[in-house]
């Protein structure tokens, strides 16, 4: 994607975002089975989520658990190298993975940073609260410039 950091070297990357209804933590290989189950059970819902119509993800046919692990490792590597930040969305009460948030350099010249998020179909009522919490968090606590994050 790109080989330069999205944030300055002296910026301390927030380890999480905690709200009463969900918490975000960096996505990694340890989330593989739960992440895979979360999105593969909600493909149509995710594809209908603002910001996902033209992304080419998730694949309509799904993917293997092994391919998903490769994807999670790529996101974890981007995070470690500060090139992009992917957070898994966890339901506090159950500990279940219920969504994901992606923060990457913009693909266009109109914005500095592309942000997208999804929640499982059975947690669709959290889509707007997640969007609002993440948009506020990024604007308040991150040095990302202008955001392209499709409103809910």
Describe this structure as you would to a colleague.
- The chain has helices spanning 32-40, 43-47, 65-80, 127-141; strands at 17-18, 23-26, 85-90, 97-105, 113-119, 147-148.
- It has a six-stranded mixed beta sheet, sandwiched between helices.
- Helix 1 crosses helix 3.
- With 152 residues, the protein is α+β, with helices and mostly antiparallel strands.
- It is 30% helix and 20% strand.
- The protein contains four helices and six strands, in the order E-E-H-H-H-E-E-E-H-E.
- It starts with 16 loop residues before the first strand and ends with a strand.
Descriptive tags:
single chain; 152 residues; globular; alpha+beta; six-stranded mixed β-sheet
Overall pLDDT score: 94
Structural class: alpha+beta
Strand order of the largest sheet: 1-2-3-4-5-6
User: SSE order in H/E notation?
Assistant: EEHHHEEEHE
Q: What is shown here, in short?
A:
The chain has helices at 32-40, 43-47, 65-80, 127-141; strands at residues 17-18, 23-26, 85-90, 97-105, 113-119, 147-148. By secondary structure, it is of the alpha+beta class.
Write the layout of secondary structure elements.
Layout (H helix, E strand, L loop, with lengths): L16 E2 L4 E4 L5 H9 L2 H5 L17 H16 L4 E6 L6 E9 L7 E7 L7 H15 L5 E2 L4
Parallel strand pairs: 5-6
Antiparallel strand pairs: 1-2, 2-3, 3-4, 4-5
């Amino acid at each position: 994607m790109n080989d330069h950091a999205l944030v300055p070297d002296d910026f301390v990357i927030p380890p999480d975002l905690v709200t009463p209804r969900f918490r975000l933590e960096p996505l990694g290989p340890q989330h593989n089975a739960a992440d895979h189950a979360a999105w593969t059970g909600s493909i149509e819902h995710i594809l209908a989520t603002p910001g996902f119509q033209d992304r080419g993800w998730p694949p309509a046919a799904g993917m293997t658990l092994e391919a998903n692990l490769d994807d999670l490792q790529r996101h974890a590597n981007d995070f470690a190298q500060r090139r992009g930040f992917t957070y898994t969305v966890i339901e506090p009460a159950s500990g279940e993975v219920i969504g994901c948030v992606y923060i990457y350099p913009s693909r266009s010249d109109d914005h500095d940073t592309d942000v997208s998020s999804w929640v499982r179909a059975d947690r669709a009522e959290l889509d707007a609260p997640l969007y609002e919490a993440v948009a506020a968090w990024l604007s308040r606590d991150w040095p990302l410039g202008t955001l392209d994050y499709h409103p809910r």
